[in-house]
Amino acid sequence: MNQTEINTILDEGLFCIGCGARIQIDKKDEAGWLPKTALEKYLNSDDEEAELLCNRCFRLRNYNEIQPVELNSDHFTKLLNSIGSKNALVVYVVDLFDVTGSLISGLSLSIGKNPVLMVGNKLDILPKSVKENKIKQWLMGEAKELGINVEDVILTRATKGDTGEQIVNQLQTYLKYHEIYVVGVTNVGKSTLINQVVKYVEGVGNVITTSRFPGTTLDQIEIPLDEEHKIIDTPGIIHDWQMAHYIEDKNLKYLLPNKEIKPKTYQLQTGQTIFLGGLAWIDFENQESISATAYFENNLNQHRTKTQTASDFYQKHAGALLVPIPTTTEFEIRTLNIEKGEDVVIAGLGWFALNNKTQVTVHVPKGVSVTSRKSEI
Q1: Residues 24, 30: contact at Cβ < 8 Å?
Q2: I need a labelling partner for 161 at 20 to 30 A (CA). Which of 75, 232, 328, 359 fits?
Q3: Domain range 73-239, CATH class
Q4: Side-chain half-sphere of 284: how many Cα atoms within 13 Å?
Q5: Where are the domains of the chain?
């Protein structure tokens, strides 16, 4: 096959089955790049089941190696906004471990009047004592505050084999919608859920590339479910204020749990600080003893010390006792007044549930979101 024929095929459009990016052979550092020799091998293959993967997805699937590409939030937002002109069902996936970081402000404006089915994913990450009905009601309340009219909420377990069947059964209520758009921010598990649906329907697994790295899906991926319905995976919206964007990829294991988290409850006296690895620390400015429960990845080391020596302690132990550390050395301070029964949330990292009214000062890398909310659990 000569270069002219290859160019003609590329102009007509070839797309990576893993991330949805358009295949190209010219710009190695951009999405969809594939070596010319690999493309020729695919085009000349007689194997009808051969998968077309860009180099990035091939390396990710086979070597768990992420190759950075230029991710454009505006491009992702434009794709999301296009849903408003469709007559479709929107499946909105949120990460139950990072709901605050999963919420998309302005989603209702983007998707128009289309109905929303909310999926709270990774229920298996939360403690087994959590009441599912309470979580559903809490999610409905969080969505309502953003102006999102959610018709129903379902909870899924990222690692459970019947998730595909669970979602398909729920979709039976919405058969009049021929297009099903799956939306969410990066790392909520959208592509994994879709793979489980496809596996249940077609018996084929891992159609879409999945990983713990943000931004794995780069463009829309359409997958037929039957002759009349198709499911469409959209790129994860990038929230730059999540902690994942401030650490090296090798340290994502400290942020993204893959098994049930084990909460830690502290009885805190006046003037105590808790370090969350080297990523953040919280000064509890209570005037009397209070109770606080920490919900963070089990690998993340928590260390309690005196507030008056906390800054010096960080300077001395960051990168040694306190690991991991962020990619930036610039921190900022957020002070919040917390009511009894509220959480202090660091987006993409975890949260503290407070059983007493108090004030806290949170030290985080500049740009990371810190908020309070009604207690999730």
Answers
A1: yes
A2: 232
A3: alpha beta
A4: 29
A5: 3-63, 73-239, 254-374
User: CA 245 → CA 218, 254, 348, 377, distances in Å?
Assistant: 17, 13, 9, 26
Q: Note whether 210 and 195 are within 8 A (CB).
A: yes
Q: Give the side-chain half-sphere CA count within 13 A for 338.
A: 34
- Among 156-160, 202-206, 250-254, 256-260, the range scoring the smallest mean pLDDT is 202-206
CA geometry: angle 130, 135, 138, nearest 5 deg: 140
Choose among 236, 239, 240, 211: nearest CA to 221. Answer: 236
Predicted confidence (pLDDT) at residue 344 exceeds the cutoff of 60 = yes
Question: What 3 state SS string does 278-326 have?
Answer: CCEEEEECCCCCEEEEEEECCCCCEEEEEHHHHHHHHHHHECCCECCCC
The angle formed by the CA atoms of residues 47, 51 and 56, to the nearest 5 degrees, is 145
The edge-to-edge listing of strands for the beta sheet with 89-95 is 150-155, 116-121, 89-95, 179-183, 230-233, 221-224
| Average pLDDT over all residues of the chain | 86
pTM for the complete prediction?
A: 0.77
Cα(201)–Cα(325) distance, integer angstroms:
43
Share of the chain above pLDDT 90, in %: 50
Q: Which residue(s) pair with 360 in the sheet? A: 284, 336
- Give me the residue label for tokens 């050395």: 329
* Helix-helix angle 3-12:36-43, to 10 degrees: 80
Q: Which two tokens stand for residue 323?
A: 């690991």
Task: Quote the longest CA-to-CA distance of the chain.
Answer: 78
Confidence of residue 232 (pLDDT cuts 50, 70, 90): confident
